[in-house]
Amino acid sequence: MKLEQISVFLANEPGALRRPCRLLSEAGIDIRALCLADTQQFGILRLLVSDWQQATEVLNGAGLLTRTTEVIAVEIPDHPGGLTDVLEALEKTGVSIEYMYAFAEGRAGKAVLIFRFDRPDAAMTTLQEAGFQVLGGPELFGE
After folding, report:
1. Tell me, which fold does domain 71-136 have in CATH?
2. Which listed site, 10, 53, 105, 131, has its alpha carbon 20 to 30 Å from 22?
3. Are the CB atoms for 77 and 130 separated by under 8 Å?
4. Can you list the pairs that 94-101 forms with residues at least 24 positions away whose Cβ atoms lie under 8 Å?
5. Is 3:53 a contact under the CB 8 Å cutoff?
């Protein structure tokens, strides 16, 4: 199952990160996972949240520039080589990883990786056929 991720484009200046976090907090939206990347001119805050549609409305309504993309959450064994196994399964398909990040989710002996692929459906099929569990919102966030 694919998840909707929100990317928020931020000025690379003090306090810029606090603003979207505060807006989401005030709207009662939980941030479930995040990744922050920057350049000299701007930052990109990538978020998985409890309600991506409401979050997008809140952020856009406050004048922030957002983009929604589909990502895939994959549960892997949390041991040396777990990531390598996923990468080897994907390598055979020619699917490109645009970016990825991980987060501590609390599953005993498991880790969760969030991937943005150039061909998400092909990647999802390949991972499932290789025995990896692709997580949806309910499995990932206990919804």
Report:
1. Alpha-Beta Plaits (3.30.70)
2. 105
3. no
4. 95/119, 95/122, 95/123, 95/126, 99/35, 101/33, 101/35, 101/46
5. no
Instruction: Locate 61 and state its tokens.
Output: 């309504």
The superfamily in CATH containing domain 2-69 is VC0802-like (3.30.2130.10)
Cross-strand partners of 81:
none
Q: Which residues pair with 35 in a beta bridge?
A: 46
> Would you write out the chain's pLDDT as a tens digit for each of its 143 residues?
899 999 999 998 888 999 999 999 999 999 989 999 887 788 999 999 999 999 999 999 999 999 999 999 998 888 888 889 999 999 888 899 999 998 766 667 788 899 999 999 999 999 999 999 998 877 776 66
Strands 97-103 and 42-49 come out as unpaired
Q: Give dist(CA 70, CA 1) in Å, integer.
A: 10
Q: Which helix (H) or strand (E) holds 6?
A: strand 2-11
Q: In the chain, count of helices (H) and strands (E)? A: 5, 7
Tokens matching residue 68: 């929604």
